């Protein structure tokens, strides 16, 4: 477990955070500009000291003001990747990758460079690399130093669309392969949806919410604070087949229900997560015909909750084959249909609204529901 219980005052601003993060997986730090993300990252890295508090990783204390313990940045064994790659210009890519390794381990270099797609760059010098390639090398170097924790501070910022997408794909695959906690700071909801397991929402130096990404995204009281996220659900589904003529992919949920969406680049048989935005889900009491909506899922209502900041809109929580789905409908419709927990309804979802989060990889076996 990664324990963070720190306070730091900077002028008018106070960061006050008390968090327990998982030992594995990606925790996204999200919050508006000035909410304290960088301040927190600098405390974890050991670039600044808290005024009060303790930071411990798997019981190893990095900092504790009560006992005056402070492990300096170079002895924390953290992998840190900033917005800019900061490679050593006089070392080759291989030299950069091996820089922080205690003993050179060709098998580890081969594994990480394979995962990051930089095998062909190993003899090149940093000034010959593109921005995206240099970031991949920086991430590889951070990982090969056998860190206890990986800190990624907006590692994709400033890359153009194609390079960003490419690096996101490598990153999404990589973070599933490593066995240390990863803290990922980003302003971009699509990046976080692709790589994060958990989300910490910061505001004015305080933790407003912390939990599994899917659960935090579903909390109606956070809707206005989550900016670009929208309320959504992530459904795990298996690619059943592709219909080339109609340019659609058919997916099946674990209970056998089917979804159709524009063709996905995934092999039949593979599992993946699909983002379903609550505002793209409508509800009917009975199966409907004569509609353009291609997807109908039978679901049970588990809760109906008007939004705190918009009472004319109700969030309906649904259970579809033991997966949570959400629908945002008008409170007037909710009342007119008499919707209530326990009712079985039809959730209608437009095919074109369904999306696989950018670069989200196929699910690993242990993630399949
Ligand atoms: N040295 C300092 N002295 C006084 N205030 C500071 C100092 N450094 C940062 N702050 C303030 O602390 C607050 C948190 O800043 P921080 O950089 O952690 O935010 P952030 O969430 O990373 O923002 P961004 O998304 O814009 O990078 C801001 O109000 C900032 O002005």
UniProtKB/TrEMBL annotation:
The keyword Nucleotide-binding belongs to this UniProt entry's keyword annotation: yes
Mop domain boundaries: 290-358
Keyword annotations: ATP-binding, Cell inner membrane, Cell membrane, Membrane, Molybdenum, Nucleotide-binding, Translocase, Transport
A molecular function GO annotation: ATP binding
PROSITE patterns recorded: ABC_TRANSPORTER_1, ABC_TRANSPORTER_2, MOP
A Pfam family reported for this protein in Swiss-Prot or TrEMBL: ABC_tran
The keyword ATP-binding is annotated on this UniProt entry: yes
SMART domains, A to Z: AAA
InterPro entries listed in its UniProt record: AAA+_ATPase, ABC_transporter-like_ATP-bd, ABC_transporter-like_CS, Mo/tungstate-bd_C_term_dom, ModC_ABC_ATP-bd, Molybdenum_import_ModC, Mop_domain, P-loop_NTPase
Domain ABC transporter: 1-229
Name of the protein described by the UniProt record: Molybdenum ABC transporter ATP-binding protein
The gene coding this protein: modC
């Amino acid at each position: 477990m990664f324990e963070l219980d720190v306070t730091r005052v900077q002028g008018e601003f106070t960061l006050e955070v008390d968090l327990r993060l998982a030992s594995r997986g990606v925790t996204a730090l999200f919050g508006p500009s000035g909410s304290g993300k960088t301040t927190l990252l600098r405390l974890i890295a050991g670039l600044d000291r808290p005024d009060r508090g303790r930071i411990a990783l798997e019981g190893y204390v990095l900092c504790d003001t009560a006992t005056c313990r402070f492990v300096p940045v170079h002895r924390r064994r953290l992998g840190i990747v900033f917005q800019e790659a900061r490679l050593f210009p006089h070392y080759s890519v291989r030299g950069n990758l091996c820089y922080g390794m205690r003993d050179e381990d060709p098998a580890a270099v081969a594994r990480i460079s394979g995962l990051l797609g930089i095998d062909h760059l190993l003899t090149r010098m940093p000034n010959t690399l593109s921005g995206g390639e240099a970031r991949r090398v920086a991430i590889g170097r951070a990982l090969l130093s056998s860190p206890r924790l990986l800190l990624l501070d907006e590692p994709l910022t400033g890359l153009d669309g194609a390079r960003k997408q490419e690096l996101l794909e490598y990153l999404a695959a990589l973070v599933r392969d490593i066995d240390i906690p990863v803290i990922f700071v980003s302003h971009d909801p699509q990046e976080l949806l692709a790589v994060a397991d958990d989300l910490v929402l910061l505001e004015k130096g305080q933790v407003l919410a912390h939990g599994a990404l899917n659960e935090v995204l579903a909390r109606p009281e956070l809707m206005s604070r989550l900016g670009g996220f929208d309320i959504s659900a992530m459904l795990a589904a298996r690619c059943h087949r592709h219909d080339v003529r109609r340019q659609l992919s058919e997916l099946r949920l674990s209970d056998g229900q089917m979804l159709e969406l524009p063709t996905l680049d995934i092999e039949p048989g593979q599992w993946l997560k699909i983002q379903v935005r609550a505002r793209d889900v409508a509800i009917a009491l009975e199966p409907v015909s004569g509609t353009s909506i291609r997807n109908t899922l039978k679901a049970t209502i588990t809760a109906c909750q008007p939004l705190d900041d918009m009472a004319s809109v109700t969030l309906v929580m649904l259970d579809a084959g033991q997966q949570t789905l959400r629908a945002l409908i008008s409170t007037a419709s909710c009342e007119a249909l008499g919707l209530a927990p326990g009712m079985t309804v039809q959730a209608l979802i437009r095919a074109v609204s369904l999306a696989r989060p950018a670069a989200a990889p196929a699910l690993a076996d242990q993630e399949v529901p």
